[in-house]
Fold this sequence. Notes:
- By secondary structure, the chain is an alpha+beta fold.
- It has one domain (16-121).
- Helix content is 51%, strand content 13%.
- It contains four helices and three strands, in the order ααββαβα.
- The protein has helices at residues 16-26, 28-42, 76-79, 90-121, and strands spanning 60-65, 68-74, 83-85.
- It has a three-stranded antiparallel beta sheet.
- Helix 1 runs antiparallel to helix 4 (90-121) and helix 2 runs antiparallel to helix 4 (90-121).
- It is rod-shaped, with a radius of gyration of 24 Å.
Amino acid sequence: MDVPAGIIPRVPGFDRHELGRTFLIVSLVPVVLAVLMAWTLRSGSDLSCEAPHGDSNYGTATPSWWPVGTTFAWRRHPNGFDRVERPGWADTFMLIGFCGCAPVLVVAGIVLLRHGDRADTE
């Protein structure tokens, strides 16, 4: 199949417009997941900050933006001990992945939608 450079070849049974729309719709998924992740970060309450040994001993939950997550802190007064638990890096890497996937999917969808017309007319 000889196709000029810069032209996406036509494949029987392959609808570029449908695939382009699918890429654009799927690109919303990482954005929605990132927004939900940020919302759960901000909605953390002190009730989610129970001391590791339990006993209804609650500390203070505060959001952390780097690394992304919630920092839990217990202080000697009123908890009886000092301890700080910082979030791990897994949520940060996941958020970076979500934010990196969306633009790639958007560009792929736009390319398929725009260049699909050119290849279909030849």
